[in-house]
Write a structure and sequence with these properties.
The complex is a heterodimer of chains A (about 325) and B (about 250).
Chain A lengths: L1 H28 E2 L5 E2 L9 H35 L12 H14 L5 H25 L5 H26 L6 H9 L7 H20 L1 H8 L2 H6 L4 H23 L5 H13 L3 H25 L7 H18 L8
Antiparallel strand pairs in A: 1-2
Helix pairs in contact in A: 1-2, 1-12, 2-7, 2-8, 2-10, 2-11, 2-12, 3-4, 3-5, 3-6, 3-10, 4-5, 4-10, 7-10, 8-12, 11-12, 11-13, 12-13
Chain B lengths: L3 E10 L2 E12 L4 E6 L5 H8 L7 E6 L2 E2 L5 H5 L2 E4 L11 H6 L14 H13 L15 H14 L4 E5 L7 H16 L3 E6 L2 H7 L2 E6 L2 E7 L6 H8 L17
Parallel strand pairs in B: 3-8, 3-9, 6-7, 7-8
Antiparallel strand pairs in B: 1-2, 1-4, 4-5, 9-10
Helix pairs in contact in B: 4-5
Classes of the chains: A mainly alpha (about 325), B alpha/beta (about 250).
């Protein structure tokens, strides 16, 4: 059976990889230079501007989309596994709302430079994570999963309220549009510099999640069972949640809040690969990358002015989620 | 040397004093101990202490001569397999993958199960008599099948000691008898087994020794056959016993 499943997963991986490569080529060639449509790859040699557009704008943005999608998809799969709950997503534990508040605060204070916005956003995303972990330890009831879920809910609501306060205080003409645009998520400013900013922490997060992917499956069991199998469930769950949140905090700090990827992609992947972390985590990374690359392609090309990426992923994600539910394809055992 | 030994264990929880008082027992290879008692008598606490999940207030648990509290969860899991009474299944894992999780103590945190682990998981499925369920989703199994699959996951640990919390509580008589038979076979192959139960028939049919817990204290340790002393049962369970009859599937161990 192992080999049968391996073959099925290999086929699925090759399919996802092939689709990713094809979409990447399409993504790089599609755009509005020199006219709306596809660049001719055979005439690139005669058009130095096209080469610059491709290498300086579209390529780093495509790689950014792949990285963003991989982080959100992979961390969503990990969160769903370690909390034994398919309805948890990657912005869980207050990370997304903390990041949004940090960025908004920076914009409100007039620090609109990339490092200021991304830096403050990153700091508040990690602060939200830390507060969630700390708060969950102060609760004296329930298991760790329930305590973390409740703490994450409270911290998300708290930072969401603070974000509302910042929006209320922001200048409606000069600051509010920037804040609103940031919270909708976008890859439009992604260049080599920003890519190099998010690459190291994102890679650390992705590598840790990949290395610990079977551990995530073990942590999906009841704590009494995983403890009996030799784990320290509370410590290991907190470590894996922090590793996943590190990646999410990094990409959110630069790209804004991009919702639904971490929730829906692992659901779809799980239908094909089964729930074992050994397959669902790497394939959710690949699936997330594919989903965000397609979404950003749509966001970039569909209209003359760009659509915020978060709107496209939310529309596609919500549709996919509704489809999964209506066809009773979602695994919801508890 | 005993595989697992409890010395004068005392245990309290916040707000509940003396859940266990001076409980001692010794579990040898190839032997089965049944722990009986009414709800709240301290059976699950005793099992959790023996599995290293809880720490005693006083007394100690020795695993092959080493104090349990000095061992890591992984070191314990290499020698003791513990099956909690109930277990929620978060996702519909295939049975083979589910049993493979029992290999966790043998695999370092950064590694994945290898061919040898798959072999051990398949062997455990065979030993538990559920090899035919290998490709099924664990969430699609009946309660009895799932219990045997969970026992298979314990066997995949290759631990030598098996602790089970009320292994037959959710099972019909036929499946309970299947579990009883399995425990009996495992003990014959040298495994040391201790289980808690309300099922007097199960204790009678498979256990070498039966221990009755009453308000955290041990009463009437001895042969399982002595369980049929009606006065002792009345003391332990607080109910009148008149006549006991067992399904014929339960056959006392020779």
């Amino acid at each position: 059976m192992k080999s049968k499943r391996l073959k099925a997963n290999l086929r699925f991986s090759l399919l996802t990889g092939g689709a990713l490569a094809a979409v990447l080529v399409f993504y790089l060639l599609a755009g509005r230079y020199p006219r709306p449509g596809l660049l001719n790859p055979f005439t690139l040699g005669q058009d130095p501007i096209a080469v610059r557009v491709l290498l300086s704008l579209r390529l780093p943005r495509a790689l950014g989309a792949i990285l963003l999608g991989a982080v959100l998809g992979g961390s969503g799969a990990v969160f769903q596994s370690i909390f034994g709950n398919p309805l948890v997503d990657s912005g869980f534990l207050g990370v997304s709302q903390g990041a949004a508040f940090g960025a908004a605060l920076s914009l409100l204070a007039g620090a609109t430079g990339f490092y200021a916005v991304a830096g403050l956003s990153f700091v508040f995303a990690l602060a939200a994570l830390w507060i969630s972990l700390w708060l969950s330890k102060t609760f004296t009831f329930g298991g760790q999963v329930l305590r973390l879920l409740l703490a994450g809910l409270a911290v998300s609501a708290f930072f969401s309220a603070l974000l509302g306060a910042v929006k209320y205080a922001a200048d409606p003409l000069s600051q509010l549009p920037d804040i609103v645009f940031w919270t909708m998520g976008s890859l439009s400013p992604m260049g080599w510099q920003r890519l190099s900013f998010i690459l190291p922490p994102s890679l650390v997060s992705l590598i840790l999640l990949l290395l610990l992917r079977w551990r995530a499956t073990l942590l999906s069991l009841d704590d009494s069972v995983s403890h009996a199998l030799g784990l320290r469930p509370e410590t290991e769950r907190a470590f894996l949640a922090s590793a996943a949140a590190l990646g999410v905090a990094t990409v959110t700090a630069v790209c804004g809040v991009v919702s639904w990827v971490g929730l829906v992609v692992p659901q779809v992947v799980r239908l094909r690969s089964g729930a074992d972390g050994r397959s669902v985590i790497p394939l959710s990374m690949a699936g997330g990358a594919l989903f965000v690359l397609i979404s950003d392609g749509i966001a970039r090309v569909l209209f003359p002015g760009e659509l915020p990426l978060g709107i496209v992923t939310s529309i596609l994600g919500a549709l996919a989620f509704a489809l999964l539910l209506s066809r009773r394809k979602m695994e919801l055992l508890r | 040397m005993s595989r697992l030994e409890a010395e004068a264990l005392c245990f309290s929880r916040p707000g509940i004093k003396n859940l266990l008082t001076d409980v001692s027992l010794s579990l040898e290879a190839g032997r089965i101990i049944a722990v009986l008692g009414a709800n709240g008598a301290g059976k699950t606490s005793l099992l959790s202490l023996l599995a290293g999940k809880l720490k005693p207030g006083r007394g100690r648990v020795l695993l092959e001569g080493t104090e349990l509290s000095s061992l890591s969860p992984r070191e314990i899991a290499l020698k003791i397999a513990f099956l909690p009474q109930i277990e929620r299944l978060p996702f519909n894992y295939p049975v083979l993958d589910f049993v493979l999780l029992g290999r966790a103590p043998h695999i370092s945190p950064l590694s994945l199960p290898g061919q040898g682990d798959y072999r051990a998981a398949r062997k455990a499925l065979e030993e538990a008599g559920v090899a035919s369920l290998e490709a099924r989703g664990a969430a699609t199994l009946s309660g009895g099948e799932f219990q045997l699959v969970r026992i298979a996951r314990c066997l995949a640990q290759e631990s030598g000691i098996l602790l089970l919390d009320e292994p037959s509580s959710l099972l019909d008589p036929a499946h309970a008898a299947a579990v009883a038979q399995k425990l009996s076979d495992l003990a014959k192959s040298g495994m040391a087994i201790l289980f808690t139960t309300h099922d007097i028939g199960l204790a009678y049919s498979v256990a070498d020794t039966a221990i009755l817990l009453h308000q955290g204290r041990l009463i009437n340790p001895g042969s399982a056959k002595r369980l049929f002393d009606m006065d002792t049962l009345k003391k332990a369970f607080g109910a009148e016993f008149t006549e006991l009859s067992l399904p014929s599937a339960y056959s006392p161990r020779a």
